[in-house]
Design goal:
12 helices; binds aspartyl phosphate; 362 residues; Aspartate-semialdehyde dehydrogenase; oxidoreductase; binds NADPH dihydro-nicotinamide-adenine-dinucleotide phosphate; EC 1.2.1.11; Dihydrodipicolinate Reductase, domain 2; Rossmann fold
């Protein structure tokens, strides 16, 4: 995809050495819209070549474009010339560092939780709610910025969940109640993450802070904006209950979902499957490079989706939905799979930035 400006955009990556940062490097090195221009991490990594600073965990080799680039601290002064800055920073430092970058007029695309629930910050899953970019104008006006803004992407489990929910909401009207139980991969906890003695041969029924995040983020993403587009307007009538578990899978979060529609007569299972198959989004229609051909892949096999078999769907940008069947308590239940570091993290940030480029925000 050529950006609106027709030139390749220079990208900086904050937190470039971490689990999400490494995924950014792999994806950006293959992306025609961006070139890798600057890499930032902590004082521990600063001054080292990227290959020495990152404990590389991707199955792809370290891209040549980044291998010998020097890592710097995350100071805007080191990111001059960047058209866009992607953040895979640890949440303990992301707030102050990301604020410093957008205050310095950089366009920031963040994976961290710190700004997600700010009313004037788009919490954008790029195959779901790119209409929330309308908030950017007010953000710039409020802060006196000309080029800078911040767009966040969602928690990795939220990112998968909202895709089929958006398709169902658009076609069949408001949803009333959602119950979701996740089985989340260990890469979601970053590196070194969960100790091996905790996770091998085991399931851990707690991911601290995850459940309230999911429950709140869904309402913001599926909601609208205020009439003057200055703030988001989260859904008020949808109730979401999440239970989150850590399982011994490397990549790919699996989620069991039950949905109740607000309508008295719910759609049939056949109508629901057709709706999910037919779902398309604006990023696809604009021809953004990272937009998957199918935002939702409907699996007909009775034992799918599975993380090892389905996490690569759409290069990690599709959500696979299977086991779609009637729910004796709510209306429908299904199982979905999302690649947590692609659509659930770096891939969404990159598609968000491709969308921003197409729409003239960059
Ligand atoms: N993993 C996932 O599936 C998802 C993660 N996220 C979010 O993305 C972010 C990154 O997660 P993840 O990659 O898993 O985490 P990691 O712990 O693997 O990586 C954290 C990164 O932050 C850097 N960092 C830590 N402290 C500092 C500091 N003081 N100054 C500058 N940089 C610092 C680290 O650099 P160094 O190597 O030098 O220490 C590293 O690059 C988090 O906010 C996380 O919540 C969101 C969705 C999904
Ligand atoms: N907590 C998620 C990953 C993550 O970091 O999410 P968040 O950015 O919402 O804190 C997981 O462990 O799988």
């Amino acid at each position: 995809m050529a950006p609106a400006s027709g030139r390749v955009l220079k990208a900086g990556v904050l937190g470039a050495t971490g689990a999400v940062g490494q995924r950014f490097i792999v994806l950006l090195a293959q992306n025609p819209t961006f070139s890798i221009h600057a890499l930032g991490a902590s004082e521990r990594s600063a001054g080292k070549p990227y290959a020495a600073a990152a404990k590389w965990k991707m199955s792809e080799p370290i891209p040549e474009a980044a291998r010998s680039m020097a890592v710097t601290v995350c100071d805007p002064a080191h990111f001059g010339g960047c058209d866009v800055v992607f953040s895979g920073l640890d949440a303990s430092v992301a707030g102050d560092i990301e604020r410093a970058f957008f205050s310095a007029d950089f366009a920031v695309f963040s994976n961290a939780k710190n700004f997600r629930m700010e009313p004037n910050v788009p919490l954008c899953v790029p195959v779901v709610n790119t209409d929330h970019y309308a908030l950017v104008a007010g953000q710039r006006a409020a802060m006196g910025l000309t080029r800078g803004f911040i767009v966040t992407n969602a928690n990795c489990s939220t990112s998968g969940l909202v895709v089929p929910l958006k398709a169902l909401q658009d076609r069949f009207g408001p949803l009333r109640r959602i119950v979701v139980t996740t089985m989340q991969a260990i890469s979601g906890a970053g590196y070194p993450g969960v100790p091996s003695l905790d996770i091998i041969d085991n399931v851990v029924p707690l991911i601290s802070g995850e459940e309230p995040k999911m429950e709140a983020e869904v309402l913001k993403i599926l909601g609208g904006l205020s009439a003057d587009a200055s703030a988001c307007a989260p859904l008020a009538d949808l109730r979401v209950s999440a239970t989150c578990n850590r399982v011994p899978v490397i990549d790919g979060h699996t989620e069991c979902v039950s949905v109740e529609f607000a309508a008295a007569t719910p759609p049939s299972i056949a109508e629901i499957k057709q709706c999910l198959r037919e779902y398309t989004c604006e990023a696809q229609r604009l021809g953004c490079h990272s937009a998957p051909a199918h935002a939702i892949c409907v699996a007909e096999e009775e034992d799918r989706p599975q993380p090892r078999l389905d996490r690569g769907a759409g290069n990690g940008m599709s959500v696979t939905v299977g086991r779609i069947r009637e729910c004796p308590v709510f209306h429908v239940k299904f199982t979905l799979l999302v690649h947590n570091t692609v659509l659930g993290a770096a891939g969404s940030s990159i598609l968000n930035a491709e969308y921003a480029a197409k729409k003239g925000y960059l």
